[in-house]
Amino acid sequence: MAAFIGMLIAITPLALLNSCSTFPRSIVVPAEIPGARLVGNQACFACHPNYVQQFPASAHARLHFVPNAKAGPSGCEACHGPGSLHIAAGGGRNKFILNPGKDSAACFKCHLETHAEFNLPHRHPVLEKKMNCVQCHDPHGSDITKPSGGLAMSRLNESCMQCHREQARPFVFEHEALREGCVVCHTPHGSINAKLLIERDNNLCLKCHAQTQGSLGGVGQILIGDEDHTDKLKLGGCWSAGCHTAVHGSNFNPKHLY
Ligand code: HEC
Ligand code: HEC
Ligand code: HEC
Ligand code: HEC
Ligand code: HEC
Ligand code: HEC
Ligand code: HEC
Q: What residues contact 126, with CB distance under 8 A and at least 6 apart?
């Protein structure tokens, strides 16, 4: 189906190239169904009106493939595959249509970088089929509280909370970092670092808690959060040295437990 690749259109840029590498973040390749051709989103309306109506708010609504120029946008078929045989068969489950809710392979055709992330040593078990993209992303854009034009979630912590109640629950002494979302410290797909952390060492915390030179203790004194950390830093990492062991919040001690 290499022929399709050359025929794509309408969204710019076609290949979203990562500026610091030659590895493309995403490319635009429609899903394939042998023998089927593209029919356009409106052809789905008769039987799936809700999806077609809510879809224009989705980032994928802009996807469009040239063979279908006259039929209008073909975003639905980007993920579900060309719809002609599905419609000719009168629709139905497993009838000439892909459901990426059952297999994320359709998403990975375009999202190469995301695919790579799920292959990193520490990851959410999507490739292992224990989880799916839709547990964190709404593919049709139905949730109006999401940012317009995006599938990225505005209520990040809520979607994580479905499965990680312990970290996302309210605490007596909250750690305000969580207000910016779990993703200020964790990568959602996969990471080279344990626990899906963005940084493996103190730099994770120093992003927000500046390390300053003390004036009272003389040369070499290190202050973090106005506290003298000169000797403490020798003990190891902020959370692994046994100091801030409750990074998500604490019900007991605001300073030492998180
Ligand atoms: C970004 C990829 C993507 C696009 C674009 C997309 N869908 Fe889907 N669709 C999915 C995924 C993923 C699921 C599985 C959802 C789930 O299991 O909750 C799904 C499920 C469905 C289902 C089955 C729901 C069920 O009962 O199991 C229908 C019908 C559907 N989509 C129609 C459409 C129509 C019509 C469009 C265009 C207006 C569209 N989709 C655009 C990804 C997409
Ligand atoms: C003639 C009516 C009809 C049309 C037109 C139609 N579908 Fe369907 N489709 C169905 C029926 C019926 C089902 C089964 C739904 C169910 O059991 O709840 C279905 C199921 C689906 C599923 C779920 C498949 C699965 O295996 O879980 C997807 C995805 C889907 N349709 C996408 C589309 C897309 C995309 C279009 C437009 C290109 C489209 N449909 C056009 C009738 C139709
Ligand atoms: C555990 C939840 C989770 C799962 C599962 C998940 N995502 Fe994400 N994804 C996110 C979050 C959260 C963001 C926003 C990241 C940010 O803002 O830093 C995101 C962002 C993205 C982006 C935007 C680019 C980027 O990397 O920031 C793409 C594309 C994407 N996800 C695709 C996918 C696909 C495809 C799947 C399934 C194969 C998937 N995601 C599964 C949580 C998830
Ligand atoms: C035909 C190619 C294609 C397929 C298939 C595809 N995507 Fe995308 N997706 C894109 C493109 C292109 C963009 C960037 C749109 C833009 O520029 O805003 C995108 C954007 C996204 C974003 C980020 C939105 C944002 O605002 O940052 C997420 C999340 C995402 N896709 C998830 C998925 C998931 C989950 C699936 C499978 C259910 C999927 N995509 C299937 C091409 C595709
Ligand atoms: C649908 C359930 C589900 C959702 C939603 C989910 N996770 Fe997970 N998470 C898992 C599973 C399953 C694992 C793997 C546990 C394992 O391998 O032992 C995991 C592992 C993790 C780990 C690593 C834990 C460890 O011990 O290495 C972190 C960190 C994490 N998730 C954060 C998040 C964040 C942040 C979000 C929201 C963006 C999120 N999760 C959404 C199910 C989920
Ligand atoms: C301020 C940074 C930060 C934020 C924000 C954050 N985490 Fe973490 N998280 C960490 C660190 C550091 C660890 C590793 C702790 C350890 O190894 O003892 C961790 C560990 C985890 C683990 C593994 C727990 C275990 O016992 O192995 C999960 C799951 C997790 N976080 C989920 C989340 C969720 C869900 C959110 C959002 C509600 C979130 N985190 C927000 C820093 C953060
Ligand atoms: C996204 C920014 C951000 C990150 C990353 C972050 N924090 Fe915080 N943290 C805050 C904010 C905001 C506060 C509340 C204001 C303050 O006390 O500085 C806070 C408060 C604290 C406090 C309480 C201080 C007090 O006196 O009550 C501790 C302890 C703390 N953070 C430790 C950590 C550790 C350990 C890490 C790394 C795992 C970390 N923080 C990462 C933003 C962040």
A: 104, 118, 132, 133, 189
